[in-house]
Every structure is written in C-alpha cells, then in structure tokens.
Design a protein that fits this description.
Elements (H helix, E strand, L loop, with lengths): L41 E3 L9 E9 L15 E8 L3 E2 L3 H11 L2 E7 L6 H12 L9 E5 L8 H19 L4 E5 H7 L8 E4 L19 E5 L4 E5 L3 H5 L5
Parallel strand pairs: 2-3, 3-5, 5-6, 6-7, 7-8, 8-9
Antiparallel strand pairs: 1-2, 2-10, 3-4, 9-10
Helix pairs in contact: 2-3
Length: 246
Amino acid sequence: MLEHRLSAAPVSLKRRLSLSGKRLGAALVVLTAVGVFAATPVQAAPQAPGEENVTLMYGEDVSNHEPNHDWTASPAKFGIIKATEGLSFRDSTFARFWQELDEKGIVRGAYHYGHPKNDPIAEAEHFLSMVNQHPAKPGDLLVLDLETTNGRSVAHVNAWAKAWLAHVKAKTGVTPMFYSGWNFANTYGHGLAEYPLWVAHYSKAPGAVTPPADWKSWAIHQYTEYPIDKNVSALTPDELRALGRP
C-alpha cells in the first residue's frame, strides 16, 4: 500500500506516502487473466479431493493517489481506504470515499499507514481521531498497514505493531486487521496471529497465497496493484463484517 509498493518478494508494497479469519481455506485459483475479477466472482479450485470450492469475493483499496476512483461503477464487494499515516497525515479523500462506500452498501474499512520510528500509541490515537470523526456502522473494518521498519530492529517493529493493535482494540472493541507484504509479515509479524491478516503477494494467483509467520489463515489477499490495488477474500460479506465494528 504505499508509494513504495510490494512486488511480492521485496518488502515494499503500495505507492502510498502523504499510504484468523473465521472460515478460510487456502484457495487456488486458475485464471487466464486477472481482470476477470472486475466482472464476476470466481470459484477456487479445490486443493484436495472432496474439498468444497470456495467463492472468492473481490475488493479494492485506494487512497488519495486515486482521487477519481468511481466506487459507483466498481464491481467491488468490499472497499478499504486510507485514513491516516504517521502522526499528522490525514488522507484528503477519506471523507468522500467513506460516504460513497456507505452509499454503495458494501463492506468498508479504514487503514492507517504506520511508522515504527514514532510512538505507536500516538499514531493509534491519530488514526482514531480521524475515523471517529466520521459516521461508523457495524462491520466497519479497522486496519494497520505496516510496510516499513524506519531502520528499527525486528523486535522493535514487532513490539510497535503489537502496541498499536492492542491500543486500537482496547479503545474500540474491534480486533484490527494487520496488512503487510508476505515477506514483511513473515519477518515482523510473529505473535500477531490474533489479528486477521490482509496479505499482499503479487506473484501468486488470487487466493493462492499461504499465510506467513504464525497465521493459520488469511482474511484478504491483495494480488495486484495494477491499475489499482485489487484483492480477494474467501469470506462472505457477513463474515468479513464480523471482523469489524460490533
């Protein structure tokens, strides 16, 4: 998710600066073109004899880098948008996108882009001050987007993430989702399995990613950034909402 986007193996994800599940099976999807998600849901091929096919739900995430994104025309069944970054940045498109997602009636979420060089509680409060200014409804997702170390150690980044996530959970009653690239999550995400995983891996077909670190499953797989960030979830809309605000 940042301006620094993930290329699946490297640990940089989206292009965004100024940017375990309940019922999850690891779904393998055979596609001739990724663009098929822009039109219809896809049945994932079972991995073992007798395994039930899983329908993957398509979603998108955007920020001020896509200011003209048209949610009305989008086939997405869930949308996640940037709210804040660091200690002071507030996304200028958040309020409009938040309202448009409400009007569209799909699952929506807000994310914060974290910087481990700062105090995690201060960053969490900055995020909450933004999202709490706007109307909330049951099922709204809250997300920590962590993709950079700011030169800090593995132990520091891991402790930082735990502090941010725990603070938001204590303040809202919501178990936040953790977003990162596969390699980053595998290195810095140990001990975070209680937080639903949104993982970016661009070299894997939609739904074909395995969970990193201690996670047993993933909630959302971001499989490409072109022309915008595209995602799939093996959860139903109601199951995804169950991870959000009560």
